[in-house]
Design a protein that fits this description.
Helix content: 10-25%
Strand order of the largest sheet: 2-3-4-1-5-8-7-6
Distance between the termini: 30 Å
Low-confidence stretches: 128-132
Order of helices and strands: EHEEEEHEEEEHEEEEHEEE
Number of helices: 4
Radius of gyration: 17 Å
Structural class: alpha+beta
Oligomer: single chain
Number of strands: 16
Length: 262
């Protein structure tokens, strides 16, 4: 059984008000998602599924937070949301939204690490994906395949997350002037990397979604009104990546073979 604590378990888009439908259409064309209204009373929240798995949620930026740019938030699984939120605060992080229940799903909170990178925590109910692995599956296109932290202090960032989630270090790759790219592991498997800020204006997490062909995905990004910011680039292991922004400006990345595999 997949260990949930420390595993990416959900990806959530906050997009420009009035653009929720357009944002869903963009990702549906790009990633093959099926997007449908969750039916939450008084709140527009759309759910995206891929290959039978719920992989992401989409919503509009809340009222009173118009200064927030469109963005993706990565939620990591925890055994106890209240205990994890207390650990974040005790370690110098910040809790943006205190732990609260989502009926039928679990208990969640939204936080930021000590360097300011936002992320979410979710303690899923056993019947709502408690085995983990639904949204994040490195074997499947349309799912989360990789996570990446850009930090003003990646060494301190690793120490924070290792203590919170039990992550361990994987390989460290020298990127020359850009510093070290430190892989991190969950339950023995590499699930992401950490690095310095690079071109990022502030510490942040970047979600990578799997695609069957990065070049065709780049074409779909452009056709849908998005912008390819970097790539395609080959990465260790033979996969390729491209970093992009959607039509509303939210950053994300795709990863997979360069061309569509048979």
């Amino acid at each position: 059984m997949t260990k949930v604590h420390g595993l990416p378990v959900w990806f959530e888009l906050a997009t420009t008000q009035g653009q929720l439908g357009a944002a869903g259409d963009f990702y549906a064309r790009l990633l093959g998602w099926q997007v449908a209204d969750a039916g939450m009373e008084g709140f527009a929240y759309h759910l995206a599924s891929s290959d039978g798995d719920m992989v992401a949620g989409l919503m509009e930026i809340p009222d009173g937070m118009a200064e927030m740019p469109p963005n993706w938030t990565i939620y990591f699984g925890v055994d106890d949301a209240d205990r994890a939120a207390a650990a974040v605060a005790a370690a110098g992080g910040r809790i943006w939204k205190e732990p609260a229940d989502i009926p039928g799903t679990g208990r969640f909170a939204v936080a930021a690490d000590p360097q300011g990178a936002p992320f979410g925590i979710l303690a899923p109910l056993p019947m709502a994906g408690g085995s983990g692995g639904g949204a994040f599956d490195q074997r499947k296109a349309g799912h989360g395949n990789w996570t990446e932290l850009m930090s003003s202090d990646p060494a301190a960032g690793f120490a924070f997350y290792a203590d919170l989630f039990g992550w361990s270090k994987g390989e460290a790759m020298d990127m020359g002037e850009m510093g070290t790219y430190q892989l991190f592991r969950h339950d023995g498997a590499d699930i992401g990397g950490m690095m310095g800020l690079g071109d990022a204006p502030r510490p942040c997490w970047l979600a990578y979604f799997g695609v069957n062909g990065v070049n065709p995905a780049i074409a779909r990004i452009r056709e849908g009104g998005g912008t390819v910011q970097h790539g395609p680039h080959e990465v260790p292991g033979g996969a390729h990546i491209a970093v992009a922004t959607d039509p509303q400006g939210a950053w994300f990345a795709v990863v997979g073979p360069l061309e569509t595999a048979a």
